[in-house]
Amino acid sequence: MSDEPIRVVLAKLGLDGHDRGIKIVARMLRDAGMEVIYLGLRQTAESIVAAAVEEDADVIGLSMHNAGHLTLAPAMLNALAKHDIDIPLVVGGIVPDDDVDQLINAGVAAVLGPGASTEQVVATVRSVVSTT
Amino acid sequence: MSIRGLPVEDLVQLSRNADRRAIGRLLTLVERGGPEAERITELTHSQVEGAHVIGITGPPGAGKSTLVARLIDESTRSGGMPAVLAVDPSSPLTGGAILGDRVRMADADQRAFIRSVATRGHEGGLALAIPGGVRVFDSAGFDPVIIETVGVGQVEVDVTAAADTTVVVVTPGMGDAVQANKAGLLEVADVFVVNKADRPGAANTRRDLALMLELSHVTGQENTDYRPPILMTNSLDGDGVAAVAAAISSHLDYLKSSGKLADRRNIRARFEVTSRVRDLFERSLVMTLGSDDAIRLLDEVASGGVPPTAAARSLAEKLLRETPRADPITTGN
Description:
The structure holds 2 protein chains of 2 kinds. In chain A, helix 2 crosses helix 3 (about 70-80). By secondary structure, chain A is α/β, with parallel strands linked by helices. The radius of gyration of chain A is 13 Å and the shape is globular. Chain A has helices at about 20-30, 45-55, 70-80, 95-105, 120-130; strands at about 5-15, 35-45, 60-65, 90-95, 110. Chain A is built from 5 helices and 5 strands. Chain A is about 45% helix and about 25% strand. Chain A has a 5-stranded parallel β-sheet, sandwiched between helices. By secondary structure, chain B is an alpha/beta fold. Chain B is about 50% helix and about 10% strand. In chain B, helix 5 crosses helix 10 (about 260-290). The longest helix of chain B has 30 residues, at about 260-290. The two termini of chain B are about 30 Å apart.
């Protein structure tokens, strides 16, 4: 990786209006020198793929607070696979510990839960980008 | 297949077949600058079709992104294939940015290609990245190309003003036209939009703008064959946007019929080439300032022995002698 800013696409997928967390994450990443392309609420897997392609994103971050992660994260991964796109996916939000392995096995690059510090969030995004 | 490992020649080829991943990648490389960006510019320059370049500028919160979303729909409806460069500021402290223009464009026609661009602190960079990005879009078959910038920085205003048609968006209640005049936005407008026209004070804003345009007559800036229209919109629900699209296309017709399109494009070429020359010299200057002679000279200025004016002249002469020999492409990164 060069010292070019990491470009992150952040979105809420599906019917989930809890956007306080994702806005805080956007600030954390911006303050770490990244370029955050914020898509906002009620995105579809297809609209996120389209934005990530147009923005040439290094990583996609999804925020999930509606207990839909076991359905929506795989749907997102399928959409990326369908379009033959290898951008890593990070999931943040309310994900029970028992579900984390399942998401990782499905192909999610990292899961960040409540209480993750700024340092953890930034380090996780950096490491996920540098290994792809 | 990973698009990232491909040489720029292949990416440019793919972009002509409307491969959106290739276009996305090319835009990243153009924005980054350096040898690959220069190569892309060389490959795409001869392929441009002359897309209509539309600049949208105005103060933060005026509703530019929402208006752009509606203009995208107007364009695709009439057979256009629009692309957008949406510029937002980088933080001067961390270099990071939150690029949020897409939020307002979420429901626009998906065939449009929308790319968010951060100013990245170095103003000269934007002056090179924007024309480079326009060229990538143009050579890939997009027309029109819309550049949206926050009308606060001088370079951003310059970049937008280098468009074929510049739309200045204002809103009621943001101060009188003196404010708009101060921002340097009035001179560059080909079309004025008073957005959020359902709000109180819209008629006053319109009148103030009209008055300012009248003053152009007094100061001798008046263009007798073209007068910028002042249009009222509410871009949230689309009111008045069709008239804006029509005014933008009439302005293009005017440019073509009056022969002024060539003038505009000359100005654009001049602006870009000047920026590139400045960029080359700046990169050489970094090298020149690192030489032992220069360091000694700067020490003498600091200790009071040599005046800064004489030091600058001496370094400028050195720079002019050495620039052709320096390899500006490889010294940049």
